[in-house]
Amino acid sequence: MKDKEEHAGWSPVTVTSVEPIGEGLRVCLDLVDFLAEDEGVLTGSTGHGYVLALAETRESAAYPPRPFRVNCGAVHQYVRQGERTIYLSEIRPGMPLIVNSPRGERQVAVGRVKMERRPLLRIVAQRDDEEVSVVMQASESVHLWGGEAQAKPVLELAAGDQLLYWADQPGRHLGERTVGEIIEL
Q1: N or C: which end of the chain has fewer CB within 10 A?
Q2: In the 8-state DSSP scheme, what is residue 35?
Q3: Could you tell me which of 48, 69, 53, 61 has the C-alpha nearest to residue 172?
Q4: Mapping DSSP to helix (H, G, I), strand (E, B) and coil, where does residue 31 land?
């Protein structure tokens, strides 16, 4: 893992809304290694910032733990990979993927990409003038990293809850940061 000092981008953000938006394609990434409870993938709908979608390390009434899987949300979203981003729809088996945690990051290869039509939630959060949004599957197996250094089930998120997010600047072209007037909503 890289030293925690390199993660100056982590900040708390406050959830302002959680709304069901119907069905869409969600992406699960099955990795070739087990992940810890605080590890996952940084994902988001815009380049303003990304939340930490955690590996499915928790048991629920409907699902056994799958510590190799990260349910990353809707197919349109960015996945932060160092200074670049890629769309979830671009990830393929065999690709190296940066796995993140508040402790640092490491690289793990993708074993399988699984897309399925599922009910989705749009989660919007804000810090000062920055708005971050993410679209996640509405499922009891999906957790984001909370501002209190614990997993937050997306089905229990409500306005006022805190998440940890990685702040970034909007404006990407083919995954690279661009300069100019960029408006992302």
Answers
A1: C
A2: -
A3: 48
A4: strand
